[in-house]
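Below is how a single chain appears once it has passed through the pipeline. First comes the sequence as given, then the structure the pipeline wrote out for it. We keep one example in the README because the format questions we get most often are answered faster by looking than by reading.
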Amino acid sequence: MDHIDVLFPRYDQAGRELVRAAYLIAEEALKDHTRSNGQPFIGHPLAVARIACDEIGLSAECVAAVFLHEATRFFPDTDIASAKFGKDVYTIVDGLNKISTIKPKDTRLEAENYKRLIVSYSKDPRVTVLKIADRLEVMRSLDMFPKLSRERKILETMMLYIPLAHQLGLYNIKSEMEDIYFRHAEPEQYRAITNKLKSTERDRQKLMTQFIEPLKQKLSDEGISYKLKIRTKTALSIYKKMQKQKVAFEGVFDVFAIRFIIDCETDRDTEHALCWKVFSYVTEEYESDTKRLRDWISNPKPNGYESLHITVKNKEGSFLEVQIRTKRMDDMAESGLASHWSYKGIRHEATLDKWLGAVRKALESPLGSDSDPMAAYYEDDVLELPAKDVFVFTPSGELRKLPAGASVLDFAFDIHSGLGTRCTGGKINGKAVRINEKLNTGDVVEIMSGKNQKPSADWLNFVVTGKARTKIKQKLSEVEFQHAADGKELLERRLKNWKMELDDETLAAILKKLQLKTINAFYAAVGKGEVDVSDVKSLITEARSHETPQAEIPEKKSQGGIREHKGNDDILVIDAKNVRGLDYRMAKCCNPVFGDDVFGFVTIKEGVKIHRMSCPNAARLMEMYPYRIQKVKWSDNPGTGNFQTGLRVTAAQEPSVINEIMDIVNSFRASIRMFNVTENQRNGTYDITMKIAVPSNLELDKVISQIRNLRNVLKISRM
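Resulting structure:
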C-alpha cells in the first residue's frame, strides 16, 4: 500500500489508479520546483487534492486533474495524453490552466467580471469548485508568502473566493477563509473576539440546555428524532455586526444560534412538514419575533441553502436565534452542492449531471443574486433538467436568464410585474415585435408599454415563466372581482327602484338558466354588460313563476332554525374569559371567535359545542338534531381571552410574501400558533395554513383585511 492508497481510501481501486497515474506525472514534472518556504511544490497540489476529496467530496477525476493542472501549468509540453485519463479530466485541466492565466488588475473593481471569466473558461463547473479548494490551501499556507504577495492574496480571497464559496454553499470553506482573512487583516480585533467567544462558551451550552428542556416531551411524543448543536458566528461576522450596530461584543445578541437537526427521510414533503412542526412547537413555547423569520425552506437560497430561522425570547428575557433544518439540509449547508452525492450515489451519472447543472446555475447568477437556480434540482430524480436557458440583455447591458421558449412578455414580467401588465410589445435588436415573440440567446430586448394596456386571458397561452403566469392570473382575478362589484352595485340600485328583492332560490334559478356556476360570475356578467340589467327583472319574474308554493316548502328548509325552535327558550351566555369551562367549548371544525354569529350544539359527553353559523356542519346539525340546538350569545364584555382560529391563504411564490403575512399578524393583537407552507408547483403558488390567537372577530377581520390587501395574496379564508 503506497501513500495514494493511504491518502485517498474513499476511492475504489480504479479511482486510486487514476489518481496515482496523475500524481506520478506531476511529481516528475515538479521535482525541481519549491514553494516560498523551500518545501517541494508537489505538496501544494497534494494538499488541494485532499481538500477536494475529503472536504468537498469530489471524484477521482477531479483529483487527477489537480495534479495534471500543476504539471502542465509550469511545463505545457508535459505528456498527459498518452495516459488516457478520459475526456472529463482533460476538460477540467484545460479550464484550470486557462483560469491560472487571468490576473485581475484591481480585485475591488473587477470581482464580478473576474468571476464571469472564471465561469466562461469553465466548460465543466467542477473547475470553479477546484479553484476554491486551491485558494483554501493557499490561505492555510499564507504565512509562507512575502508580505506583498500575502496582502494581494488576502484581498483576492475576500473579494472573490469567499463570495464564490458562499454562492456554492461551501460554508465550512467560506468560514475558514473568513477566519484566516480576519486573523491577518485585523489581528488585534481577531484576538479580542476569539477570546470573548472562548470565555462565554460554557454560558452558551447552559442556554441551549435550558432552551430544549420544555420541548423534549413534545418532540418525543411526536417521534421526532433530532440533535442540537450550537452554531457560533465567525469572528469576522461578529466584528461586522459590532461595526454596523456600533456596539460592543456584548451588544451582539445573535452571536450564536441553536440549531435543530432533524433526522428523517430525504423526502421534500416529509422534511418540510417536520421542520414546520418543530417551528410550531418552538413558537408555542417561546415568544417569537416574526419580523425576523427567515424561510429558506419554501424558498432556498441560490446556493441551495435550506433552513428556517426564527428569533425567540427565552424565560430569562434573552433573545436566541433558532435554526431548524433536516440532516440533509445541514449537510448541504456545511459542505455545499457536492453533499448531495452522499444521498444519491457518487457514481450515478444522472446524479452527477444534476449536480453539475445546479453548480453551473449557481455560478451563472450574479454574486448576491436572489434567483433560485436550485429549484429544479431537488425535484424528483426522474425529472429531466430544464431545457437550455436563453440569456438576453436589457438595453443598458444587464444580463437576464430565462427558460427556453420565453417571450417578450416573459421578459417584461421578469423585469417588473407592473411593466409586464402594461406591456404592448417590444424591440428585439432594434426591430419592433409583438409580445408573444420568442427570445434567443444574445438578444437585446426593449419593452414597450401603454398606460391603458390590460392583461388578457390569451396571454396565458404563450408565457412560460411561473412569475408571468401567476401575475397574469392575479390581475385577471382582480379585474373579474371589480366587474362583479360594479355589477352587484348596479343591480342593487335597480332592485331598489323596482321595489324587488333577490332571494337565494330565485338567484339559483337565474344562474341555472344563464348557465353560470357562481353568484360572482353572475354579478361580473352584469358589470361587463354581458347580461343586460334591464333583463334581470323579467328573469326574476320568470323564476318566481316556477317556485314551489309556500305551503309545500318543508319546514326543515327554514333559515331561522334556532329562532323558531320553541323547545329551548333559554339562552346560554358565553364570554371570552371562560372558553375552556366545563359547560361549553369552541368547536374545532370552525374555530369561532368572540363576536361571531354562533349557536350551541349539545353533545353527549363534551357539553355544549359552540359553532359558527357559517360552519360547514351547521346545516346538517340543525336538520338532523334540532332538539340539541342551544341558543347562545356572547356576553357584552369581551374580556381578555384569546380564541384560536385557522386561516388559509393562497399567495404567489414571492420570497417576501411569507414574512409580510407574519408581519401583519404580529402588528395586531394576534399571535401565530401554527404556520405551515406547501408549494404548489403547478400553479406557482404557496398554500399557507396557519392558526392564530385573537381576542375577537374585530381583530381577526383587521388581520384578514390587511393580508387580503397584500399584492401577492390571491385568496384568504377562515378554516
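The longest helix spans residues 466-498.

See the next section for the split statistics.
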